[in-house]
Amino acid sequence: MDNRGSVPGPSPLAGPPAPRRSRRVLRRLLVAVLAGGVVAGTVLTLLPKERQERGVTAPAAGPRAQARTEALTTVTYGVPAALPGLTALIGRQEARVRARPRDAGAWAVLGSAYVERGRRTGDTADYPRAERALRSSLEARGSRNTAALDGLASLALARRDFPAAKQNAEQAVKAEPKRWTAYPPLIDAYTGLGDYEKARSTLDKLLALRTGAADRPAVMARAAAVYRDRGWREDAVAQLTDAAAAARTPAERAAWLAGVGQLAWERGDLPDALRHFEAALRLDPDQRAAPAGRARTLAALGRTDEALAAYRAVVAKRPDAGELLELGELYESLGQPGLAEEQYTLLKTAVRQSVAGGVDEELLIGRYEADHGDPWEAVERLREEWRRQPGIEVADALGWALHRAGEDEEALTYASVATDKAKGGGVRSALYAFHRGMIEGELEEYAPARRHLQEALRINPVFSPLWAPDARDALNALGDVPDEPLPGEAA
């Protein structure tokens, strides 16, 4: 589609843009890794005073009450519980705020529960509800309401609004610097904005706090995400593995296992990835990252029929735009363009729904347009996204879009940011290395092109059913190019 004259924002692919509110920063969205935040729930007991302040009453004994307690942990401590408990908690809090409309604690719990349910189910219709509830909490208690600030930070992260997440998370940390749950959303916000030094220093502050045994798995998972972004893959795996071993509920353990599976996928260890994704699904069938990870891994293993069935089950349950893009590209790689186009049509509908919930989908839209639509539209939108929140994901996507539009010299600038430890986060990504290698090849920089294409296939030889074969073909076409270092590297 030709949209070069428009103002970047949610593209026509997404329909009319939802108004960008001044969403402050929510509460917490752990990892997601990978993702992809990963999160889970532990059973904690609130002290009587805490229960009163947070707008909840002591739960009765029994399985249903325990599920509600786990869900309460999700929204008050940022360590999510199973979906049924969240649903029960939401019903209870809705009744409470109807009865006591000035109860700031109850509004904060309700808003944060909406955020977590939306994140877990992919239903972005929960996000406007969350924002209304959290702002009602702020109105009732004032700007030092850290529970509401936490919720707003988590909401902003779920919507990919990193500036708003940073603003609210910084307020929450300033108000209560010794409260560990204020730090993970701030780490995620800094990462999304490309400020990796602040992300690392904030992690150091988090690790220096005294956290209880129930909280440590979530802290370890947060550390794993930062280590992964720095390229410390083994350290990230160790942290997540320990987090899974220390988890106190099936939902929590499933989240950390899915994170381990994602790390295994990124390094091309397919049997290990599949084992962890399937273990996560056995523990928590509602786990969101594991089903798509399993489908992706089955495709890479050549178990195509199983992979297609797994993907179709995933998108039938919740039509996530990113997973629809993956399925469409899998169909393309199999020479089935008609079925691929069906997925891209569904993707456009999913994006519109997501944008209606206030989610910034510019990164995904840019990736779609670069490879399957109008590369110039991708460039325009990703330029604006880079101006607003310059993380390495956006740098990679913008560089690739510029390459697809024929602007390879400028493209290399952004591809370098995404792959250079001195400029970016240091994450080891086969896709980023592939993009840089293809751009360098087009610029006739054959030695670095060969080096980066080799790196992509060394990191994960099956990183994409559509693009991994292109990486091998491009590498073969380069022939025996001397693998000489660049002048700066030689120095």
Task: Describe the structure in brief.
This protein is mainly α and 491 residues long.
Largest sheet: none
What is the N-to-C succession of helices and strands?
Answer: HHHHHHHHHHHHHHHHHHHHHHHHH
CATH homologous superfamily caption of the largest domain: Tetratricopeptide repeat domain
Task: Bin the helical content.
Answer: 55-70%
- At the first level of CATH, the class of the largest domain is Mainly Alpha
Question: What general form does the structure show?
Answer: globular
Count the strands?
0
Give the distance, in angstroms, between the N- and C-terminal Cα atoms.
46 Å
- Residue runs with pLDDT of under 50 for 5 or more positions: 1-12, 14-61, 486-491
Number of spatially distinct domains: 2
**Cα Rg:** 22 Å
Mean pLDDT score, rounded? 85
Beta fraction of the residues?
Answer: under 5%
CATH topology of the largest domain: Serine Threonine Protein Phosphatase 5, Tetratricopeptide repeat
Summarize the topology.
Blueprint: H1 48-53, H2 63-77, H3 83-99, H4 104-121, H5 126-141, H6 146-158, H7 162-175, H8 183-192, H9 196-208, H10 216-229, H11 233-246, H12 250-266, H13 270-283, H14 289-300, H15 304-317, H16 321-333, H17 337-356, H18 362-372, H19 375-388, H20 392-404, H21 408-419, H22 430-442, H23 446-459, H24 468-478, H25 487-490
Helix pairs in contact: 2-3, 2-4, 3-4, 4-5, 4-6, 5-6, 6-7, 6-8, 7-8, 8-9, 9-10, 10-11, 11-12, 12-13, 12-14, 13-14, 14-15, 15-16, 16-17, 18-19, 18-20, 19-20, 20-21, 20-22, 21-22, 22-23, 22-24, 23-24
